[in-house]
Amino acid sequence: MFEHNLNPVLLSFGPFEIRYYALAYLFGAILTYFLLKKIAKERKVKIEEREVLDFVAYTLLSIIIFSRVFYVIFYNFSYFISNPLEIIAIWRGGLSFHGGLVGAVISGIWFARKWKISFWKLADMVVIPVAICLFLGRIGNFINGELYGRLTNVPWAVKFKDAEGYRHPSQLYEAGKNLFMFAVLYLVRNKKLKDGVMFSLFIVMYGALRFSIEFFREPDPQIGFVIFNLTTGQLLCIAMLILGLPLLLYFLRKK
To answer: Is 74 helix (H, G, I), strand (E, B) or coil?
Structure first.
């Protein structure tokens, strides 16, 4: 068993702090830039280097905004209404993947129209770096000691500072899930798949795997279980599967 005593702050200069969580997003943006350039070249999609940089910057901003908005609305609305200044304190964590996905889709639609390419073609490329970014984000959650799992006595259980007893390191389970998704998507990236298959596969894999891992994750205390002992995250994952499975079947059968 492991006692969590990791410092989430790498460096501090007076009130200014450099946190691992923020660095995860920075490294994710850098990886996204280089991976998109590589994949676009492999697929012979003509996108200028500056356009890739613009896409990464605007998409990252859109993801952060929408993931925070979703977290505020669906996970702790009453708290943020009472403490509105806390809404901008994203360095403390509190981002919703499902909101980030909405932000990424909106940005993708805008850039696909700008570049005059299929949204599905662009989405198929983007989900590869997105998976590795999600991996880095969950590592950041573990370093922060947040979003920990339920009580357990497994040998790899972790004692988090602000949590009672030993817990599942569900952040690392999620990190492993995201790394697995990245590996799958990266390995099939050059297969002759129809536009939209990779994006749909990402949605289905994330929805199914996240739904399963949520059984080991501690529900948000301000929400708890919603219905049928399911969490808010699981309900959102069900929505992803309801959307993703028909999409995947449609693109697989498309001539």
So the answer is: helix
Helix (H, G, I), strand (E, B) or coil at 56: helix
Question: String of b and e for 123-138 (b: at least 16 CB within 10 Å)?
Answer: bbbbbbbbbbbbbbbb
Query: Which secondary-structure segment (H or E) carries 2?
Result: strand 2-3
Beta strands at 2-3 and 158-159: parallel, antiparallel or unpaired:
parallel
Condensed to tens digits (0 to 9), the pLDDT of residues 163-175 reads 899 999 999 999 9
**Residue that has been written with the tokens 């590592």 in this structure:** 139
Give pLDDT tens digits for 68-96: 888 888 777 777 888 787 777 766 667 78
Domain boundaries along the sequence of the chain: 2-253
With beta carbons less than 8 A apart as the criterion, state whether 214 and 234 touch: yes
Report helix, strand or coil for 255. coil
Cα separation, 62 vs 58, whole angstroms: 6
Q: From 126, 103, 98, select the one nearest 214 (Cα to Cα).
A: 98
In this structure, is the dihedral angle defined by the CA atoms of residues 139, 141, 142 and 144, taken in order, positive or negative? positive
Q: Which residues contact 47 (CB under 8 A, 6 or more apart)?
A: 36, 40, 55, 115
Q: Where are the alpha helices (DSSP H) in the chain?
A: 20-42, 49-75, 77-82, 97-115, 119-144, 170-187, 197-213, 232-253
CB count in 10 Å sphere of residue 198: 25
The pTM assigned to this predicted structure is 0.88
Supply the pLDDT for residue 121: 92
